[in-house]
Amino acid sequence: MEHYTVEQVASLLGLHVKTVRNYVRDGRLPAVRIGKQYRIAKEDLAAFTGTPLGATRRAEASSIVQIDGIARGDMDRVSTMVLGSLAGRPHGLHVEFVYDEEREHLKVIVLGGLEDSAQVLRIVDALVRE
Questions:
Q1: pLDDT grade, residue 4 (50/70/90)?
Q2: Of 26, 83, 100, 111, which is least surrounded by CB within 10 A?
Q3: What kind of architecture, by CATH, is found in domain 3-49?
Q4: Extents of the domains making up the chain
Q5: Is the pTM of this model over 0.85?
Q6: What is the 3-state secondary structure (H, E, C) of the chain?
């Protein structure tokens, strides 16, 4: 069983050490006293924060880029270049292209992690500016 010191818990939660000690003394955060220090079990910390053990924080982006006045050939070039740049990218990234030939509108739909989505948006931006 993994245990944390009061200092480690304070650092993990972004709290002052005295605040964590008060939580322990008030009984809000279970801990065991070893000598002059408290030790907080990983499971008790997870229950206190309301996060499952081993949970990682994840952020995702949903973006729609609309490009007006783009001819079919340019649209094909943009979609080919973007999809080619995705080789080897995580499976959690999804990019879709919707083209309205009559209006010459292209919509690029990007769903995925922040950095991967940002990379796709940078590529689209560079291709549109050419």
A1: very high
A2: 26
A3: Orthogonal Bundle (1.10)
A4: 3-49, 60-129
A5: no
A6: CCEEEHHHHHHHHCCCHHHHHHHHHHCCCCCEEECCEEEEEHHHHHHHHCCCCCCCCCCEEEEEEEEECCCHHHHHHHHHHHHHHCCCCCCCCEEEEEEECCCCEEEEEEEEEHHHHHHHHHHHHHHHHC
